[in-house]
Structure to design on (360 residues):
């Protein structure tokens, strides 16, 4: 886990104007005179992270990448309803593309929040910081088990919302510990094989899947064995259908969202009913090769929103995965109740809708 140091001495009050001494997730020491109110982000999902600790996250932004696909159309519309100014904020490069120094400099933020996987070079970081803009690297997606908590603490320190960040971290940590304690009681040989297909139905060929890291870590944490991790060395890659069939996983988890509607893939989100989500899951489970898997025949086939997985709200996905992989052990876990509490206690823009589904 990346080390970090926050406010020296006692915890400051909210919106303290003192200096924060930070170490970001790349191990870079950063001093911030805070709280800051002009932030640029390279991933729209950081709006969700900021919305966990601040009642109006858009008010903190001076630029964002307009990568609505990462946020999801429905969530984007909810942010617009709350903060119409979001649509007109300047655009900077997304972490999924080539880095663009000029657009960032033109936006003139106090702080540029950049993703761990950003393609920015050391020379570009120097150019940005020579212009008086502090660069801080955070991560909620590549190594969430290592970096989610430090990243939220960084956001709390930057925005003067340290207590709010600590409150959510404690909420998540308690639920994570409850799961870890139960998994620790499992016999070593009780690790059901799990096939996670990311963006299921996006294209005719099979199969996008996590390897080591990201969603694959969720599977391991809740007591499953991700078959992708045996052949994919990075966080994501592709499995061929023959491999999936040969492993014949016991549990099949597909991810999807509104972005797959045109392709005929798995759809989930506020605009869909449970029946529509189940019908789309049934369709992808009926594909050649997939339909014969033990996981499908034994009715252990499930779908989860990709937007909600790649999110600081990962505890909801972790709880759902736990119930699907060890249903008896985690019979008392309720991801719907967890999401409802997050909506009520933390989020500036709540997540309402169908975000996971089982194949009946």
């Amino acid at each position: 886990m990346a080390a970090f140091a926050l406010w020296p001495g006692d915890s400051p009050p909210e919106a303290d104007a003192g200096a924060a001494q930070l170490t970001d997730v790349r191990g870079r020491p950063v001093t911030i005179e805070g709280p800051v109110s002009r932030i640029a982000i390279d991933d729209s999902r950081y709006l969700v992270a900021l919305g966990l600790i601040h009642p109006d996250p858009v008010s903190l932004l001076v630029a964002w990448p307009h990568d609505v696909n990462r946020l999801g159309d429905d969530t984007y519309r909810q942010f617009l309803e709350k903060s119409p100014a979001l649509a007109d904020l300047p655009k900077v490069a997304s972490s999924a593309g080539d880095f663009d120094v000029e657009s960032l400099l033109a936006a003139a933020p106090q702080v540029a929040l950049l993703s761990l996987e950003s393609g920015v070079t050391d020379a570009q970081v120097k150019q940005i910081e020579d212009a008086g803009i502090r660069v801080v690297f955070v991560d909620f997606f590549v190594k969430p088990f290592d970096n989610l908590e430090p990243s939220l603490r960084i956001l709390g320190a930057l925005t003067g919302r340290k207590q709010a960040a600590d409150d959510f971290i404690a909420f998540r940590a308690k639920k994570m510990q409850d799961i870890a304690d139960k998994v620790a009681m499992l016999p070593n040989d009780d690790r059901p094989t799990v096939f996670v297909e990311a963006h299921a139905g996006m294209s005719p060929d099979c199969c996008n899947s996590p390897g080591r890291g990201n969603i694959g870590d969720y599977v391991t944490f809740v007591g499953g064995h991700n078959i992708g991790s045996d052949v994919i060395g990075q966080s994501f890659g592709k499995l061929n259908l023959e491999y999936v069939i040969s492993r014949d996983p016991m549990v099949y988890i597909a991810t999807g969202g509104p972005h797959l509607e045109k392709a005929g893939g798995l759809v989930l989100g506020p605009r869909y009913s449970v029946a529509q989500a189940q019908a789309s899951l049934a369709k992808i489970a009926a594909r050649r090769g997939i339909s014969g898997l033990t996981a499908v025949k034994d009715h252990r086939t499930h779908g989860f929103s990709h937007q909600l997985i790649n999110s600081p709200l990962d505890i909801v996905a972790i709880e759902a995965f736990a119930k699907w992989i060890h249903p008896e052990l985690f019979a008392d876990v309720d991801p719907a109740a967890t999401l409802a509490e997050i909506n009520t206690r933390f989020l500036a823009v709540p997540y309402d809708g169908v975000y996971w589904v089982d194949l009946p």
Summary: The chain has two domains: 19-177, 186-358. Residues 186-358 form a domain with the Rossmann fold fold (CATH 3.40.50.1980).
